[in-house]
Amino acid sequence: MKIILNERQYSILLKEDRKSYLRKQYVIDPELLEKFLKPAEDEEGRRMPGGVNPKKVDIKPIQNEQGVDIGYIVNKKGKQSVKLTDETFDNILAVDPDTNNKYTQWMIKVFIKHVKDNDIPGAVRFVDEDLHEANEFIEIFNKVKRTNIFKRSAPNLQNAPDNPTDINQYESLAQLYSVISPFLTAAEDEETGNVFWKKLRKYIDIGEAKLAYRDNDVLVYIPLTIESSCDPLGDKASWCTRREGNTYFDSYRRNNPKPNGDISEFYVIIPKNYFEGENEGDMYPLQFHFESNQLHDKNNSSLGNKVNSVLNRFPGLRKFFLEELGALTSMEIKTGKGLLDSKYSKYLNDFGGSVKDYVDEDVYEEGRRNIENIARENLNPNLPLTSDKYMKWLIQQNPNIDLKEFFPNSPEFDKFELDDVNITKIPDLSSYKNLTRVKATNTNISELPNPENFPVDGFMGVVLHDNQITHLDISGYERLDDLFFFQLRNNPIRTVDFDSFEKTLRLLDERGGMVSISIDGNQLSDEDKNRLREIIDKYNIRVSI
Fold it and tell me: Which of 164, 177, 328, 398 is the most exposed place for a label (fewest CB within 10 A)?
């Protein structure tokens, strides 16, 4: 006999089949549990203490605070699995807002992950306390996952999985909430009638603008038409690009294209609390246009050093811009620009990133090798190494770079000089027999160089102004036969090795000749300053403090 089902009956049948499948898959087999718990009997029918162990099975209950079983950890033939009680399964099933229970399996897997991560309290809390939130979060997820705004901006969120529209890629309720919460806020803004947000949203929805980034604290809006710039932003800032009827919006974008020839984009940064009437420092919204080197506040003034405070306030925003600038830098290098000449790499460095971390490795390596070759070609014995912009860039990218590779060991290169770069130490130059002096100013050196790193004969002096040296210990410098000057101005010297200081001055004085030493004593105590002067007065060495 053939049975014909209508659509509703077929839907119910499928739903019941899914319930049965999930129950069989995740609920403990009652017969197995009964055998495990049932007292064993010997051959004569007498009860034995404990229970039987059917087929090498071990079952460990997962209990809530009331001592009620909510699940089990089952070890069967060396394989471990997590099973639910019928009651736990029914409770999870009951909060699934989908009529076909398509989120039940995900909630079960969240529970199982807690257990497998040895987070039993989290597993208990999930079943006893969090199922209501699970229902709420899933309803929001189900509502927003198909929207264009979610598909566009959710992947940019810091905690988002690879595919934010796939519930199975979320590992916990906390992760799910962190991704959907910005879109819940957007819905709340609309419900409260926020006119500014409604205007932005209108242009986003019709494709005349992009919501490039959004998290719980800030969003990035990119207008693609003059209307989407002027209508919502006209009374919010004084940029020329937001005035009605202006030609600047199109001319800036077309006359300053991206490296691939596409028109460039304005990034408008708006904090979440701006929609609530707050505007710290009266500076928001901000507008960034990297192609014309304009990072401006609402008053059309350059942000300057304030950029870093903005990025510190919004860490997710920093991550977003580093990825954007990395893509633009890579794109520009591929068109033939060198790494150093990329306008985007400057911003990438300023925003706290490194070019090598945000461009393709092969692109970066080719560009770096070209810069190294140019730096070697540009070497000038009469100028500091860092006077060359290519050499300076190499040091900025790698403060631990082997500088000797770029400093020839030849008679004409008798001075080793560095200025305004972040290095921590002077390399070993003891093999450079023609070296007469070392100068490193405004670097990040925090310790005096080892005197054994300099040649004994012919070496005249060290200049280390404007560094971070805090301890003065000049022992060993008396070994340098021709030492003439030793200058440490503008270093925060706080302590002195007086024994080595006096010993070195005595040996230099006994050797004869004139030696000039200058140090910054502003951070020294009056007692230490007086002690230094007492030592200095004993010898014919010129020392200024």
Answer: 398
